[in-house]
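Lay summary. Proteins are chains of building blocks that fold into shapes, and those shapes determine what they do. In this project we predict the shape from the chain. Here is one chain we studied, written as its sequence of building blocks.
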Amino acid sequence: MREFDFELALCAHLEAERPDWLHARQLGASVEGRRIIDIACIEPGPEFETRTRLSPDRLPLLAVESDVGTGRACYWKDAFDCHPDSARAAMQRAVEAGFFERERRGGRTYVRQTTRYPDWFGRIVGVENKPDLGRPGDLQTQLRTDVALGLFDEVVLATESYVTGAHLNRIPDAVGVWRFDPDDGEREVVREPTPLAPDDAGVEVLERGAARTDVAIATAAQKVRARRRLAERAYGKGWRTYAFPSCERASAGECAGAEGLPYCAWKDRFVDAASECGDDCPGHDPAAPSTFDVEVERARRTPWEPEASGFAREQSGLDRFR
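And here is the predicted shape, written in a compact code that computers can read:
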């Protein structure tokens, strides 16, 4: 099975199994490097409900980490430690997301947080997909990087292959192993993952060559920031990030109870429209793409809230206490 099909089927299965968690595909999972994790599973934290009220989109990290607070409004340029263009873009996105409230005084723009940034996520589990262990690619380096960096609380390898002792010996001991059958949705835990140390410093592999490997030390503070960035991207992105083919033979398919997956009747599988559909496909029959609303499906099956109510109205009276 191709990795794209496997990934969609596993996301649908995990979402059905843990509907209280959030799941997202293809996210940056590094501090300075270029590591992309196939699936990130985000456990809601104690203030998750507050996050759902803010915005359905990711919040800009520069705004979250700025000196803008919930009390007295401040001049926006004084609150950011970055280039003014980046600060302005982050400020505007934070206002649009309902995280900042904006007001004008003497020709200047002042901002305050509508609510403090919530403690909204707990554990983060990274899942690397490799349906065929006979074609491992750079799997060993990827998993060793994940373990040494410790950005995730746990890391798991998911495969469709039969897992032998030889396979397990080549996989870092801390990495859990799942055997997943995308056809019947059965998931077997071959090995439980060992908890990592996301609160401690870690080592990140930046470049590996025949004679040299470049690494960097990631501090605990850098990892906190990277985890927040990953969680925010996961919240805004989800795993339904595909396009539907503009083809008569394509439809909104179903897997593990999740609807709206890009299914092709001619290929008899899910398809990645961006890379394999179009006029050059022998089975292409031009038609309008599916109108299936993936956001409605995500909201139906997860705690993600597409219609955030916000906090600005509750905070609008604070000017009286300045």
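What the prediction tells us: The chain has ten helices and 14 strands.
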